[in-house]
Amino acid sequence: MKSLFAEFGSPQAVAAAYNGGEDSLRRWIAWARSNEVDRLVSEMVMRETKDYVFKVVKFHTAYRERSIRTRSGKRERTICPTANE
Question: What is the model's pTM?
Answer without folding.
Answer: 0.67
